[in-house]
Write a structure and sequence with these properties.
Blueprint lengths: L7 H4 L6 E5 L7 E4 L1 H6 L5 H7 L9 H14 L1 E10 L5 E12 L5 E10 L1 H16 L3 E6 L1 H12 L5 H7 L1 H9 L2 E5 L1 H7 L4 H6 L10 H12 L4 E9 L5 E9 L11 E7 L1 H15 L9 H18 L3 E8 L2 H8 L1 H18 L5 E6 L2 E7 L3 H17 L1 E3 L5 E3 L2 E8 L7 H17 L5 E3 L1
Parallel strand pairs: 16-17
Antiparallel strand pairs: 1-2, 1-5, 3-4, 4-5, 6-7, 6-10, 8-9, 9-10, 11-13, 11-16, 12-13, 14-15
Length: 449
Amino acid sequence: MKIPKNIDSLIFNDINVGVYRNTPGTHGKFIRVNDALVRMFGYSNQKEFLKKVRPSDVYFYSGDRKKFSELLAKKGFVRRKELVLKRRDGTLAYVQITATAVKDKRGKVRWFDGIIEDVTKFRREQERFRHIFENSPVAIWEEDLSAVLQLIRRLQKQGTKDLRKYFLSHPAIVAHAFRNIKILDINKAALQLYGAKNKKELVKNFGKTFAAGALEILTDEFLTLAKGEKNFSTELKSRTIDGKMRDVLLRVSVPDGYERSLSRVIVTLEDITERKQLERHLKKVAQQDGLTKLFNSRAISKRLDEELIRAKRYNLNLSCLMLDVDYFKVINDKFGHQKGDQILKRVATLIKTSLRRSDIVGRYGGDEFLAILTQTKPENAKIAAERIRQLVTAQRFPSYKNIPTKITVSIGVSGYPHKDVKDFRNLISNADKALYLAKGSGRDCVILS
């Protein structure tokens, strides 16, 4: 704000900032003030103010008057200097002073002309929001993404058309950009989330929070904001300073006026680890057979559908086993359902342990089990099925009064590629037909569809 040469022209104008003229020195006094300044300090009129108030009286910190006068005398002009003044009733006024030193021909300061803007309300709002920022239960930080934006603009000038493809094929560049983000401010919740003792420690270790799998998310964030979008949100995994993995909900927003520079971006991170753990648990329970802990019928069918789609896309082999416990109804009727459940659990374990880790096993219903053998030809799947059959036959299952009981299984095998297999239901149907033939052939055998 430029100080007018003739302060008298402002004194009588209707303005809402305080205007004053005062003499320098320890015993300096106000020469002229306007009505806005009089009201600012809680006085009724200019005459009363000039009579009762000296410049040294209005400074809350006694040393500020001397420091400000010396600075003004030395520089000749000071713009928006923040100071704390006190009103007539003792309350504080946070102000910004713009002033000039008027000197004579010999360079001696005759008086100071100044304008005082009361920013108390603004400062209190700042303090209020600062309190909210610091004590928010959600991790918040401010960051400067201008360097990332400059990188994107530079790549565009160089003719890089597909920036997303470029970043994903150059992960080191994304990681470097992430580690060089400027952190402007961090709240307490962010320190707690990452296990940092203070802001300096978190800023120093900021690059370590980059977790595997976050490459695409960071790329999408950078490119979304670079396009001018003001918001971005997603879920991702992040690493604490001591290496623990956390699930977090990331929200990024660009304040008004910073869209073109991205020099100020607000980031919030909500720790959703417990929620994601619960979701994973519920998903597992929803997919799991309560007795055998294998996939249930719906889940194993879904997995077979997914694996068949993958096999078709990449021209892979895929096989399916349908296994049934022979005479299981008789076993249940003779020894009871509790013993029958124990046998099913034991058979489930034998199937699971005899196959590869990449193979998928589920309880299809009752005493039927379905196994998916990925990248396996039907002929090889039949060998695996025969191994399961022999393993079960060799076992002795306790039944009534711990008397060993022999259990056998019948297994049907189907596979892809096959002219009759259009979707996963055909694989199940073919395996089921082969199982029916195995039972018709005396049971305790394997039949290939």
